[in-house]
Amino acid sequence: MELRRRVAKRFREVNGEHPMTAADDVYVSGQFVVLTELCAASGRDPDDVRRLMLDRRLPLPGYLRSDGAEMVPADLFALAERAGGTELVAEWFVGHWTDPAQGAAEWDAYLSGRYVCLRSVTPGKIRRKDELCAAIEAAPAAPDAGSAGWLDQLHALVDELDALEPQFTGYDRLRFGGPTSRDTCIEAVRARYPRRVTAPGGR
Q1: What's the predicted TM-score (pTM) here?
Q2: Are 18 and 64 in the same domain?
C-alpha cells in the first residue's frame, strides 16, 4: 500500500487536486485499464511497476479513478519492450528528436502520465500531433486561406489529428487549466470552417 500511496501522491503533485465525476469515471474506464488488472494479465507485480514509475522508468497513471484505481493505457509496457527494457527506454525515446533538450522535455512529459491526448503514445505520434496542431493553428494566416483547396487541406489535417486523439473528459480540462487540443484544433476548427458541400457529380 505504501508504493500505491506514493504513486497517488506523485500523481496529485503533477495534476493537482481535482474531483473525478461519474462521467469522468465512465470515460476513463472505457479508455484505460486498471493497473492491477493489467499486471495480472501480463504476469507482472504491481508494486514492481509502481517502483518503475517512481524511478522514472515508466509513466505515472493517466488517471486516478474516483475509487482510487490507477488507470493506465493497455500498452503501458510497449515502449519499454520496443526499446529493449526499462533501463534503455529513456535513451531510446529521447533519440527520436534531433534536439536532445526537446527529447528530454518530451520524456519528462511522457513520464508525467499526462499524454492522455493520444490514443497510443509513441515518439512518432507525439511528433506528428505537434506538427498537426502547429499546421492547423497556422492555417488561417495562409495566403490562400478560404479557398477550396485550402479548406480541403485543413480538414485533412483535422481528420488526421482526430484519428490520433481520444475524446478527453471534463477532468482533463481542469488539470490542463483550459481547453484541450481536441477543443481548439478539431471541434472549434470544424465549427468555424465547415466542410465543402460537393454537388452531385463532384461539382
Answers
A1: 0.90
A2: yes
